[in-house]
Amino acid sequence: MEKMVIRNARKTDIDEIMNIEYDSFITGISENRNVFLDRIATFQNGFLVLEVDSEVLGYISSEIWEYSENIDEKMFDLNHDIKKVHKCNGSELYISSIGILKKHRKKGYGNLLFKELIEKISKNYKISSMILTVSVNWKPAIKLYEKNGFKEICRIKEFFEDEDSSDGIVMRKYI
């Protein structure tokens, strides 16, 4: 029987996190090692990993922002500095990244991580909304977010630096 654990990420998880990042995202979309180390150091409660039989198979990272109706595309830039935008007493959770090793997808792990993060943050912080970006091409991710109550609020033209410069969908959920 598999032993599954969802826990806060630690700096010692960085090699496994980067393995998942490079397995999940192509160059131009993947974020760098120091960004993840800063996320762990700045908001460890908002950075979870999923272990199965002591192997890290997935992660989800987040930040807390001040809520704003005005969407500034720069807020969502890849590799942005969490220390400049994270506000522990903010009211909006930004889900910055989620990744599952390809060979372990379609097992519900992404949904488990997603729900665990939302439950944990909702209990411990005064969050009234959540926001994220997703590529128009990532249909399974869009489906996961819609299933969890997120709605499209706008699009960012050619946001992702992939082969077709795909648009980013900004999605929000009010709690």
TrEMBL record:
Q: Which UniProt keywords apply?
A: Acyltransferase, Transferase
Q: What class of enzyme is it?
A: transferase
Q: Which residues belong to any copy of the N-acetyltransferase domain?
A: 4-175
Q: What is its EC number?
A: 2.3.1.267
Q: What Pfam families is this protein classified in?
A: Acetyltransf_1
Task: Return the InterPro entries for the record.
Answer: Acyl_CoA_acyltransferase, GNAT_dom, SNAT-like
Question: Care to name a GO molecular-function term for this sequence?
Answer: protein-N-terminal-alanine acetyltransferase activity
Name-wise, this protein is Ribosomal-protein-alanine N-acetyltransferase
